[in-house]
Amino acid sequence: MTSFLTCSCEIHSIPSIPRERNLVHYYRLTKDNRLLMGGGDVSVGFGRKMNYDENERIFNELKDYVKKVFPVLKDVKFTHQWGGPVSVPIDMAPAIGKIGDDRAYYSLGCVGHGVSLTILNGKLLAELLLERKSELTEIFFVNRKTIPWPPEPIRFGISHLIRGYMRLEDKILDR
């Protein structure tokens, strides 16, 4: 599950904040000039258990990160927080294609980058539905076969190993 926060604050623009991280953070201003921030760590459920939308540890890490990146917001009150599932294929690459019916397509595996990838994927899906050929429809993840995750409890263990490695690498890069 990925998490999001909003807070009321006086920010009129957000500069580009380049980060080379695995567990990325992203920011934008809402129409009413509030900061919306998401990303960071994720929760991993076991089996079909997907009720990890409300993870206080992750929300607190996001709040601390906002205050680290924007020290002027150290006393800001966060007004909303929510989370949701992250689609992660085992090879960490997206996949887009037909489900079988010519009218049914799928897009999965944005790996926490859905905020930016869904715009691209929407354009790509439109071209596929309209049967247009373009450079976009030739991207490697169109009509590719994903590697299936192994069954539980192996999937759960592998997920935590991958996530743990990503967290460790981010911690090292953040120094």
Percent strand equals 15-25%
- Summarize the amount of helix as a percent range: 25-40%
Overall radius of gyration:
18 Å
| Low-pLDDT residue spans | none
**Any idea what the shape is?**
globular
Distance between the termini: 26 Å
Count of distinct strands: 6
Structural class by helix and strand composition: alpha+beta
Tally of helical runs = 3
3D structure, described in words:
By secondary structure, this protein is an alpha+beta fold. 29% of the residues lie in helices and 19% in strands. It contains three helices and six strands, in the order βββαβββαα. It has helices spanning 56-69, 114-129, 154-173; strands at residues 2-8, 25-29, 34-39, 78-84, 95-98, 105-108. It has a four-stranded antiparallel β-sheet with strand order 2-3-1-4, covered by helices on one side. Strands 5-6 form a two-stranded antiparallel sheet. Strand 2 and strand 3 (34-39) form a beta hairpin. It is globular and about 55 Å long.
List the helices and strands and how they pair.
Layout: E1 2-8, E2 25-29, E3 34-39, H1 56-69, E4 78-84, E5 95-98, E6 105-108, H2 114-129, H3 154-173
Structure at a glance:
With 175 residues, this protein is an alpha+beta fold. The chain has helices spanning 56-69, 114-129, 154-173, and strands at residues 2-8, 25-29, 34-39, 78-84, 95-98, 105-108.
Question: Which short descriptors sum up this protein?
Answer:
6 strands, 4-stranded antiparallel beta sheet, single chain, 29% helix, 175 residues, 3 helices, alpha+beta
